[in-house]
Amino acid sequence: MPNVAILDNQSVAESLAIALRTVDGVDNAVWVDSFPALRALLDTDRPDVLIVDIGGNNAHERLAVMDLDAVRAQRTRVLFLSRYDRGALLAAVRRRGAAGFLLKDTPLQTLAAAVAVIAQGGSVFDERIRPSRPAQLPLPSQREFQLLGELARGLTNVAIAHDLEISPRTVESHLRRLFSRYAVSSRSQLLMLAINEGWIAAERPTAIPI
After folding, report:
1. Beta carbons of 195 and 202 less than 8 angstroms apart
2. Considering only CA atoms, which of 124, 100, 121, 111 is closest in space to residue 48?
C-alpha cells in the first residue's frame, strides 16, 4: 500500500492526511506546509505519492516540486489537487510530467484509488476538465535566448554583460522587456516560464538572483 505526503496549508493538509489514513489502500499519509519541510520529508520518509495543492496564485511555486530530486528520479510521483477548474493548470502540470490532476471536490475514495494507480506507475487526470491550449507565446529573440541561458547559470547582470559583451544596463533593459512581454516579475518566474515552454533545459542553478 502506498505512502502519501501532502503539501498544502496546515488545516487542509492535516485534515486530508487524517481522512486518507481511514481509507483502505493508503498505508500512511503525512503532511507539510512548506518547501523546506517537504525537502526534508522526501529525504527521510520517501513517500510513493506526493499530493500538492495548486492554484492560479501559486502555480509557479508549486510546479517547482517537479524539480525536486526524488520527483525527477521518479522515487516519488506527483498528484496535483486544485479547487480551480482550469484547463490551463491541467496543461501546465501535464507539461511538467505530473502523474495526475484532480479537483478538490473529488470523493475521498476516488482520491485514494487515484493514489493507488499513481503509486503503481499509472496516471489519473480529471475528465471533467478540458485541456486548454493557451495562445502560443512569442519566441524570444536570439539575443534573449542567450540571456535566458545565462540566467539559468545563476549569473549576475555584470557577469552576463561580460559574457555577452554588452553593458549591464543593456542586460537590465532586456530583462525589463522580457518581464513585461511575458507578465512575470522576477528572474525565477522568467526561468520557470522558459523551462515550461521548452526554451531552455530544466537544469537549475543552485541559487537564482531575485
Report:
1. yes
2. 121
Cβ atoms of residues 185 and 61 within 8 Å = no
In a domain, 169, yes or no: yes
Indicate if 34 and 88 belong to the same structural domain.
yes
> Which pLDDT tens digit goes with each residue over 131-151?
655 556 788 888 898 999 898
Counting the structural domains of the chain, the total is 2
- Mark out the alpha helices in 97-183 (DSSP H runs): 108-119, 142-152, 157-164, 168-182
**168 shares a domain with 69:** no
Dist. CA 89–CA 56, nearest whole Å: 8
Q: Based on C-alpha coordinates, what's the Rg of the chain?
A: 19
Under a CB-based contact definition with an 8 Å cutoff, are residues 88 and 55 in contact? no
* Domain coverage including residue 85: 3-125
Query: Contact at 8 Å (CB) between 2 and 24?
Result: no
Q: How far apart are CA 31 and CA 59, in angstroms?
A: 19
Structure confidence by residue, pLDDT tens digits, 19-70: 998 887 787 899 999 989 999 999 888 899 999 999 877 888 899 999 999 9
In a domain, 206, yes or no: no
